[in-house]
Amino acid sequence: MASGYGTHSLSPSSWNNFEACPRKFWLSRQRLPRKTGMAAALGTAVHDSVEDLCNLDLEGRDDNETGWLPSMAKAILTRQWEDEREKFFKTPRHPKWKEDEFPGAQKQLIGALNILFKKAGYKQVSLSSITIAQWKDIQEMVLAAEGTLRSSCGRLMGRLDLLVADRDEEGNTIGWIVADLKTGKPPDDEVYDTVSRQLRLYRDLLIDNNPNHPKITAEGWYSKNSSVYVAEGPNVIDDALVAWEASQLTKEPFVATPNSKACGFCEWKAWCPEWPMAKARGELESHGTFRDYVVKIIKLEDDCSVGLVEIMRPLDELGNMVSTDQKYGVIFSGYAQDHIRKISDLDWQGPVFLGGVNVSGSSWKMGDWCDVLPWEPLLESKRDFN
Ligand code: SF4
Description:
CATH 2.40.50; six-stranded mixed beta sheet; 11 strands; binds iron/sulfur cluster
């Protein structure tokens, strides 16, 4: 295999991607048009708001003041929300922005702050009852808010959300807690394996970088219900270094390991010739209301609101596709209509990837949530390896 260019750093999320499907990891490094969604935007807005609140300059404020935190938290979240909205629209592939999710983000921020209150020993308090002095105390407990953790060799890295002092009943520091804030669904029982490994990687990087460290606990903080999950288990640094070695980029694509879980939410399908092959072999689930297809456009109305398409099936592993006799009418609206119009304007003659097609009715439906992209399997990296 050709050696990779430059030195890359492996983060917990890229490690998970690599493990889920090496091709998915490889495609994610090819500078293809990125995709984002509301969950990511909401998560970042909440994370950055917690960071801003932890770094708030309260110099000169009256220590006994109460009632300041709800409006401060809302103002900070509003600013972060607006920043995220701007980034969202600058990301080439995005669905519709849902402004009505702001109250949900606000609840998540309050959920995250409640965990901080508990960690500082303030139980069952409302935001409005927190005094300036109490928030200063919480700020003191927070040793770091948002930082990059890097192994001394530079091969492993991670974005640390919070490093807080672990306090006993008397308020004495007895250790460190490395916390990752999660705005997703809390687990039913234990933390998911991928999350546990991510948290342990942060823990183990901290251990390696701080020879005189106190006891370090790795925790997942789920803001949805203010629950805390501890990740326990062996050191993961050696495994991460093995993954780093294996994930050095090459000009040739990495092996693909199509499976329903990895392919289900893979954002690189329009460039991957492997999933249609796996689907044709019956190895991928093909039920449910929302499905992905590679199609030939047979006909489009002038305004591109309605079209007729034919499903294509794979001819070979290079991504060449051939027609089938299965034709469907499609109703395009929102961004799906904009994108199919762009493809038509460019006079793209090849197959088209349709992602997230609603197949529940007699005609297919495509809207803001869908991918409509030229089918362009990537069989060699476009990056410079010289
Ligand atoms: S579509 Fe499936 S096989 Fe292809 S890169 Fe994504 S996860 Fe891997």
